[in-house]
Design brief:
Shape: globular
Number of helices: 2
Helix content: under 10%
Radius of gyration: 19 Å
Number of strands: 21
Length: about 270
Amino acid sequence: MIRPVVVSLFLLLVPSVASALTLDGKATQGGLMIGRAAPGAKVALDGKPVPLTPGGDFVIGFGRDAGSSAVLTVIHADGRSEKRMIKVAARKYRIQRVDGLPPRKVEPKQQDVARIVAERDLLRAVRARRTPESWFRGGFVWPARGRISGVYGSQRILNGKPRRPHLGVDVAAPEGSKVVAAADGVVALAHEDMFFTGKTVHIDHGLGLGTVYAHLSRLHVKQGDRVKKGQLIGRIGKTGRATGPHLHWGMTLGSVRLDPALVVGKMSGP
């Protein structure tokens, strides 16, 4: 559940005019915030346009290394301007060592490069979608149950080699365990064999917000399927770059990688 956060506010409004802007979520590195403005408004974050649904819903997010503040600007349909200064909380990240990976998955061979580049471009195209829907409004659930074996933001050392930070959450569970959609949306990608992530699903939740489910052993959906929160989409596996069966669950807002654990809270149940 996304909990409201207090942000400092300064308005370029006539004081007697009430604001129609709402903004909820976690103003922290890796955090997602969901907002709503009156229909017809225009929104920007640090000067960059933010897409809205026809009803005025929008989402903003802050990456792993986001700065300490951001400015949200809203131009209302009647021309009034409103700004909010958002203070973004900093986080401390762990260092995680992972050994026993296939050497080729850590240091790809020359013949792997073209495949890796093609798959990267495919993922960029999926993340560039800006579907004018607010399916995310239905909330999020954990897509799998198990031991948390990897957390967002941790610096990864793979087979002794420093690599990019881990930008998602890993849930370790027996192979074949259920993986469900974290929220309502449309399957934007259902890939049977990606070099690093193996069998992979990406769900579009609207306005560029998406979740990815990697290392699956089986897919239960195909591209274009409309899915509901909690619906079975795959099974936990160890395909791609993995040492054992687990789900890598990630969240993206366009090209920004967010922490999905922040939108669901503590895992409950077995």
